[in-house]
Every structure is written in C-alpha cells, then in structure tokens.
Amino acid sequence: MRNYLFFAVLFFTTVSYSQIGGRYTYQFLNLVSSPRQAALGGKYVTGYNADPTSAMLNPASINIEMDNQLALNYVNYIADVSYGSVSYAKSLGKKDRVFHAGVTYINYGSFDGFDEFENPTGDFSASEVAVSVGYAYMIPNSKFHVGANAKFISSKLEEYTSIGGALDLGLIYHDPDTKFDFGLAIRNLGSQFTTYDEVREDLPLSIDAGIAQTLKNVPIRWNFTLENLQVWDVAFRNPSRDITDLEGNVEADDPSFINNALRHVVLGVEFFPESGFNLRLGYNFRRSEELRIEGQRSFAGLSGGFSLKLGKFRFAYSYARYNSAASSNTFGLNLNLQ
Question: How do residues 68-121 score in pLDDT, each as one tens digit?
Fold first, then answer.
C-alpha cells in the first residue's frame, strides 16, 4: 500500500507550468503510432513488454523481452495525412544490455501552391522524420528502470526546412509479482538547430505519468494515465458552446475545475493481455471534450482495437474516434527475428 500511495502523490507533484497547443514546432513527435497505445486512449507509458514501439513513448520500457523484435506501424490519419514508425531492439554485450532504435515519419500529402495574387505556383509537399536511439538501465536491487532516447529531427515544409534534436527521459517501476507498473515520461527536451525562417520555436514538451496492473485471477489489465502534466490549464472557452437567452444575454462557455482536471485523464483496459489474442478499449477525456458536437452523439474520445499472435508474428489494429467526420486507423506488425 505504501508503494501505491507514493506513486499517487508523485502523480500530482510532477506538474510544472508551460503552454500547449499550436505554439510549437515538430508537433508530429507527440503522435502515437502504436496500435496498443492508440487503442488504450492515445497515451500508455507503462508498457513494459516485448513491443519495441513502447520505448518510443517511454524509453525506460526498453527490456530484454524486446531483444531482436521489430515493429512496423502505419496510421491512416485524417484527410491525406499518413504517418508511422519502425522500431527495433537488440541486446549487445551483456544479455541485459538492450539498445533501441526507431524512426517516426509523417507525410502531409500534396498541396496546391499559389502566390499572393492567387496565381498557381505548382504542387508542393511536406514531411517530417525523427530518428532515435535509446537505452534503459535497471537500478540495482530495485524494481526501477530508467531510460533515455536521443532524437535527430528533420522537417521539410514546402521550400522551408528545419533540423533539430531532442531527448526523452523515462522511469518505470515494474513489479512482475504483483504485475503493477508505474511509468513517467518526459519527452521532447531539445531545440531547433536550424530554423525555418529565422524564428526559433520551442519543441512540444510532454510530461505523462501512469499506473497499470493486471488483476489477480482475472485476465484484465487496466491503466490510468495523466497526460500533459507540464501545464495545468488545458481547457479553453469554446464560443460555439456559449448559451444566449431570449434577451440576448450570453453565458460564456467556462470549463470547470473538474472538467479541466479530467482533460488530463486517459483510461484504458486490456482483455486477455498475456494471451495470443487480446482486446483493448480506451477513453480520452480531453479528446472527447474538445471534439464533441453539441446536440450530437459522436462518441468522440473512444478507441478500441485487438491484437493476434500467429507464430513469430503479431498483428494489431486500432480505431480511434474523433467525431462524426474524422477517425484514424492504426495497423501494426511485430516480428520476432530470433
């Protein structure tokens, strides 16, 4: 019980203050390409398992079970945007020393170009990529693991290019006996090396923490995640939700303290987590609040998926709902190369 209390306190003392939203460059760094993470609500920092994609969200999850595992992921995103990732882990030297490498990319598709006088200038494209290497270390005589990823980032938006670098730091407490895990990830600590057009922009810092546990004698694993701990106030006024009475008085949309707190919460559950076939469900409160449409039941914030193991292959799929007009499909294939 002391461990649970310690982790609960740590959740709420991790918060620092900054800003989020459209004020950062390289926003693709916070997109989730893992079917498991997408199905469980979009954030899952307690994934201590054989999936090397887990290390791209929390580098402390790099472990010996990932040795010689290759993960390929693809996301059919909104409009013509598509992105994905490739990750691989390998033990070198001592058996417990596992290194991880990964590539994340995004293709924004093709655009029609015009000048300020609306004259066509030809098509152009935009894409970004990040290459990472990581390593984790188990603290002796403990159940704590720490890890880090170093990332090289390249971005090309029409004729503008930018190069940057970032560091991810992670911590995981993994108890194989009680099957309880605590995870903390601080991602995208870095800077632009070269800017698009003489204006230096910040990277999208993200601090997430979570707990997860497989129930005793029941094939269910639940997880509770707090995202965007680097800033408390993530709620904002939505003018379309203002209420105007018959006299023309406007009651402005004003998210409450509880509403803002819930927007940090992501919930997920896995059924049959240790078997060859499992089901996953998730709910993202912030996504639900920001994307729901008044007067309609759009099921925004819900996500789900499954995975199926066939020999040395594991196929995974997830579906995430944004609103009645937008959703994403994530496909993943894990290969055991041993």
Answer: 999 999 998 887 788 999 999 999 876 678 899 999 999 998 888 888 888 888
Using CA atoms of 76, 183, 224, 42 in order, give the dihedral in degrees to the nearest 10.
-10
CA end-to-end span of the chain, whole Å?
39
The rounded distance, in Å, linking the Cα atoms of 85 and 82 is 11
Distance CA 87, CA 83 (A): 14
Residues 6+ apart with CB under 8 A from 201: 23, 24, 25, 192, 195
The answer, yes or no, to whether residue 21 has pLDDT greater than 70, is no
Q: How many CB atoms lie within 10 A of CB 1?
A: 5
One-letter amino acid of 297: R
The contacts of residue 57 (CB under 8 Å, 6+ apart) are: 32, 34, 37, 43, 44, 45, 47, 185, 187, 208
Is the predicted pLDDT of residue 13 greater than 50, yes or no? Answer: no
The residue among 316, 319, 320, 314 whose CA lies nearest residue 331 is 316
- Residue entry with tokens 């990830």: 185
Give CA separation, 41 vs 29, 78, 169, 199, 302, in Å.
Answer: 17, 17, 21, 34, 7
**Cβ–Cβ < 8 Å for 223, 36:** no
> Per residue in 116-171, pLDDT tens?
888 888 888 899 999 999 999 999 989 999 999 999 999 998 888 999 999 999 99
Token output for 98: 């596992």
